[in-house]
Amino acid sequence: MSVQLGTLEELPQDYRDAMTEAGVAPLWPMMRKVLPHGKPIPTTKPSYWNFQHLRPLLLRAGELTPVEKAERRVLVMSDQGRGTGAMQATSSIYIGMQLLLPGETAPAHRHTPSAARIIVEGKGGFTVVDGEKLPMNRGDLVLTPGGDWHDHGHEGDEPVIWLDALDLPLFVYLEGSYAEEAPLQAQRNRPDAALVEYAAAGLVPSRRGNQARRYPMARFPWARTEAALRQMAQYTDGVVEMDYVNPETGESVLPVMGFTAMMIRPGETVRPPLSSESAVFHVIGGAGESLVDGCKITWSEKDTFTAPVFAEVDHKNTGSEPAFLIRVHDRPLQEKLGYYEERAR
Ligand code: 1HN
To answer: Which of 166, 167, 168, 178 to probe ligand 1 with, by most ligand atoms within 8 A of CB?
Structure first.
């Protein structure tokens, strides 16, 4: 049962003026807006970016704007519900497509928000995170946790493009977003160390009193992820999804953003439960169609799309090969806040 609450217009003008004068306002006309019944009413609308449309725009940015003038040469991918230029793809997730040309460097900085890269194309790019040089190959997930120094470089001979995902909107909302700058970092002597230390699931280095790093694994190479998904698909008839976790703790790899690798078999349709998370889907390979709250999105390799909180989502693989996607979501944040929720459809 829902009572119709009083409106502002019902109140006498002199009373409204007096409230404004005193710096107060009545709650009841605003109550349903901030506390809708049953479920949230998202501002976020399902959005989609075709990589083949973004690519020439990004390459043109490479001609028009030298990296020195950009610091990070990025085209921001804005939620359609908020409009072009919005630094949000969903309520809590920022995404953008970044270009680095051969020989270029993007200077070191560190900031309070955390970032992750999903590599879209090109060979020879690398990022240095906290002194550790990490190669960037197609499909890799590379993390830049909040507070860690990071710079990007390029030793190859073709453009390198990657998708950035940051928990920036939350930090902006909290008035907690800021950066510090520095010259390029000295690279320490163990490039990609985590791949050696965490080469086998369930085994971590014995530390004999030394503490593991808070973010022990900064790079998850796609080849390993795809092999794991394909094996899971053989082992189960069910949904094939694997979460990226911190190998020391089993928790999500970053505090706010979560990452899940998905495989959809040829011809298969997956119909996940409604969930309170918002999500960005990036297609690593394959082709399909997704219905997001009734909005049909036709996607293929390198495309990106979003789903708002509690969206009704169906993904269908329309190709003859397995489809692979990485989902960036805010479930870890919502779990920490104690309200993550799934509902049957
Ligand atoms: C950032 O630091 C990077 O380091 C990319 O590559 C995109 C968007 C907003 C704020 C910081 C990067 C970013 C960013």
So the answer is: 166
Q: Whose CA is nearest to atom 6 of ligand 1?
A: 72
Q: CA 176 → CA 19, 109, 171, 254, 258, distances in Å?
A: 31, 16, 5, 17, 20
97 lines ligand 1 (CB under 6 A): no
pLDDT tens digit sequence for 183-202: 777 777 677 888 899 999 99
Q: State how far the Cα of 175 lies from the Cα of 55, in Å rounded to an integer.
A: 33
Cα–Cα dist 97/74, whole Å: 5
Which residue lies with its CA nearest to atom 10 of ligand 1? 168
Torsional sign, CA 233, 238, 244, 245: negative
Structure tokens at 33: 């807006």
- Residue linked to tokens 């519900």: 81
Tell me the C-alpha distance between 343 and 276, whole Å.
Answer: 9
| CATH entry 3.40.190.10 includes domain 48-207+219-343 | no
Q: What radius of gyration do the chain's Cα atoms show?
A: 22
Interatomic CA distance for residues 88 and 178, integer angstroms: 17
Q: Would the CA dihedral through 59, 329, 44, 302 be positive or negative?
A: positive
Return the residue whose CA atom lies nearest to atom 12 of ligand 1. 72
Cβ(333)–Cβ(63) below 8 Å? no
For the Cβ of 167 lying below 6 angstroms from any atom of ligand 1, the answer is no
Q: Is the minimum distance from the CB of 112 to ligand 1 under 6 angstroms? A: no
Q: Which atom of ligand 1 is nearest to the CA of 151?
A: 4
73 lines ligand 1 (CB under 6 A): no
Task: Report whether pLDDT(173) > 80.
Answer: yes
For 293-318, write each residue's pLDDT tens digit.
999 999 999 999 999 999 999 999 99
Bridge partners, 164 (sequence order): 96, 117
